[in-house]
From TrEMBL:
Signal peptide: none annotated. PANTHER family: RAPSYN-RELATED, SLR0380 PROTEIN. It comes from Candidatus Entotheonella gemina. InterPro entries: CHAT_dom, TPR-like_helical_dom_sf, TPR_rpt. Residues 460-726 form the CHAT domain. Pfam families: CHAT, TPR_12. This is CHAT domain-containing protein.
Amino acid sequence: MEQGWNAFQSGAFSTAISFWQQAAHVYAKSGEVSAQGIALTQLAQAYQALGRDQKALTSLKQALKLTKRAHDPSQEASILGHLGNVYLAMGQLEDASQWLQQSRQIAETLEDASLLAQIFHHMGSLSSARDQRVEAMQHYGKSLQLATQIGNRALGTRAAINAGRTAILLQQYPLAKDHLNMAWLQVKNLPSSQDTAYSLISIGQASKTLGEHLPEFRDALLQRSVEALIAAAKMAEGQNDDLAASYAWGYLGQLYELEQRYEDALQLSRRATFAAQRIRAPESLYRWQWQIGRLLRATGDIQGAIAAHQRAVDTLQSFRPEFGPVYGRPRASFRKVAEPVYTELIDLLLQQAATISDRAEQEARLLEAQKAVELFKTAELEDYFHDDCVVRVSDADLDKVSQTAVVIYPIILPDRLELLVRLPGELKRFTVSVGGKELTDTVRHFRRFLEKRTTREYLPYAHQLYAWLIKPLEAELKSVDIDTLVFVPDGPLRTIPMSALHDGKGFLIQTYAVATTPGLKLTDPRPLPRDDIRILSAGLTEAVQGFAPLPFVEEELDAIKHIYGNEPLLNETYLKTRIQKKLREEPFSIVHIASHGQFESAADETFILTYDSKLTLDQLDEMIGLLRLREEPLELLTLSACQTAAGDDRAALGLAGIAVKAGARSAVATLWFISDQASSQLVSAFYRNLRNPALSRAVALQRAQLSLLQDLRYDHPAYWAPFLLINNWL
């Protein structure tokens, strides 16, 4: 056990895991239940340090069972607190709250001040994650008070640091300064350890931030930041803790980067890189490779900057980053932390391509940029679903598969919009002078007004977005014989239907069929086999589980039955178990669900309503996976009554990734819900068109949308535009 702790304290988490696994095994064989529970609890801490949250949860839940058998309430409360902390790090705040409340109840019954000090600290971090900053300050204050009473200076220091951080967020800068002063005084009296090194790192980072808000104390706070980071680095090196050393040297380099001391910053960043490489710590390494890339760019070494950014991306690709918490703070979002690495690489490659006159060499750079975009899209989807096995990468050559489609990658950068366009046989780039903020604001207005059926206020925004996204390509599009535009949308563009862009004369859908995909490499483009199409259709007309009735669903399912002769599962027959049984027994090529579907920012909060329960994306994947086992993948999944919140880019990512997650070649789904006969009319037209082997899926949907557009009752895009064809358009 002690060897594991020594390894953990030095940052060798994988080594600690090996020691604690062995210890747990030995205690299990000898029947020492309590000791086995302690070993598993420590094992979970090592897993969490590596961002392997699911393994941490498994270890803790096993430890909890053992501790209950041993009737050790103090250890039980400790494990419950650890469970809350892991769920907090994963961003599952309700679960975190439940475990922490259980832990607190036991600790209060035991009057265990040591446990309560830890629990209040975790609860402070939970409140902070919920943006309940006043509550967070109260919890950190209680933790600090109890830690001081029992003489736990290490925890008291951490509580003071986090109270200081929270005070900064509350704009209570003098209070923040007081807390950080207290932490700075206390940390000097702590023994050399990993905890102390990380406290010093945190003081350094928080002091730098506070200096930005207190200009009269800026120099003193920056000096403290430098002293704290140097002390942390030396302490870490003295303990052979390369991980802590890499963060200390790296953050010091970041501080010098802000001061434009580029040579000093480069030297420190390389030192941080070497430390991270020595212990194979990709979660640290990519940060400093990226930092070196930024520094080289600032000094004018563009080729060096590209190489450094590529190394950072390669490192990110080697693991699924979950961006570990610092003393209980939840993990940062993938988009905030990892996206800039990819975006800056893409930006550098595109800028370099613009300086190259040789067409072949220029296209090589554009291909590298396209590859970087695809890598980011894949990583983003893996992060959304918390599953690095969800993505099934295709190596299909677009030019061989389809000569009738153009693929458009809109790339939103802070100062401009780049359009990377895959035309038959070539890749081209177009630059549009619109900043990311202006584009995003326009997208938000467009989406909001699109859903208003009684107004045409969306039109100016539809015109503007057409001018930015399509107008620059018009000449190229007219020069090739294509009928479909496939968009790989970025960020806010996922929340809008491209079909509703307008050139002043007509909608884009009136000229081209439109499809969307989270990434071309995530698409398996092949034509739909029209012989022996088998469809499983299901839906709700009744109000269940607090959701409104869907009166036109029966008409929609009857229309599908008339076309394909299938018997739908309606209302009380539309049960999760019935769906599973049907999929197990028959090789369906299409699954159509006409029921409320809610796509949220978190994949585990996304669901499709059944009569008796809610179908999660994991359950849907598991059910449809039964078809994959027969090597007869689902050709099409249709969700005709789902919705995403306007402005929620991440929820729209979930919608875009539904086909990939479910293992379907393509999906048809709605961005917003249409409680109207229009939906059933469009769906029945789509399925009638789909029977025609001369029509691709995209064209079948296009014609169905045009049939509504030509109907005066439904010509507003609120009725026909929310339907998206996702992934395979053929």
